[in-house]
Design brief:
It holds the Pfam family Gln-synt_N. Belongs to the glutamine synthetase family. It catalyses: L-glutamate + NH4(+) + ATP = L-glutamine + ADP + phosphate + H(+). This protein is of the alpha+beta class and 362 residues long. It contains 10 helices and 14 strands. Helix 2 (107-114) packs parallel to helix 10 and helix 4 packs across helix 5. The longest helix has 20 residues, at 209-228. It starts with a helix and ends in a 9-residue tail after the last helix.
Amino acid sequence: MSLLTDLLNLDLSDCTGKIIAEYIWVGGTGMDMRSKARTLPGPVDDPSKLPKWNFDGSSTGQATGDDSEVILCPQAIFRDPFRKGKNILVMCDCYAPTGEPIPSNKRSSAANIFSHPDVKAEEPWYGIEQEYTLLQKDINWPLGWPLGGYPGAQGPYYCATGAEKSYGRDIVDAHYKACLYAGVNIGGINAEVMPGQWEFQVGPSVGISAGDELWVARYILERITEIAGVVVSFDPKPVPGEWNGAGAHTNYSTKSMRSEGGYEVIKKAIEKLEARHGEHIAAYGEGNERRLTGRNETADINTFVWGVANRGASVRVGRDTEKEGKGYFEDRRPGSNMDPYVVTSKIAETTILWEPNLSNGE
């Protein structure tokens, strides 16, 4: 008699050329990830050759019951680390049957910005530092923390080793390898300042691919924590008080910034970000005001500050960038629950396309 694990690990290539495609999309809350699978006649490596599909949007908060059909449009393909073989994960975005993007589809407007000739010419690179917190199931309390209590103060946990300081490494390493297998451009991992909190980095990725890769990395993490019986939280401040929140620091550069004289371009870009600080904050994740307090390695949400090597700033410039006169900067304001399509395109739009209207004082 076969065991469940035997059936899960069946190699379909022994008996069929068909593959399984897991279609993934962002649900109605803007953070919930949904997916469903379909059989395809054979391997596909070009999303434009994949069939569109549909789902019941009334069950995901993306349509009404009397007009519930939402169309899934494949946009990016990744290898499936769960089914392996020729099977694939497909990142999709969502449209009404009329062809219009639905309100929760943030990818479509981001793609419009990234397809602008001025933006394409600048080849915007992103490196996103996704922080998250692992929680004990049913009680929603950080992994490794005593039930109803608190561990010792922050200090020993950042990049730490040892059973009394590091919680959830098996999940984190499984996610790391699964992302590499999938083809996500994951750059690394580390334990964070608060125990039970971790970070992975995606990038450098160009344009819209940064959003595709981060969403798929989140999806893979959700699937792995599901298997492990642990909950992953992207709340920007999962534990009140003197505990670090969770962000999604976004490192950014353009071709001009990476070229000789780029430091001056960086400074002008930061001036633009400062001028639109409130607009960016509004797009950088819900509940971020609980994290951006001016404490625990953050700048106050109402204040824009930038500096070299300053981790308490809104925007940080690295020492190497200052020394070499070119490079990148880090926007430290986005919360861990931000939409990467929104954040990456917003930064590009502000720094490349937007020009202050001096007559209006903007």
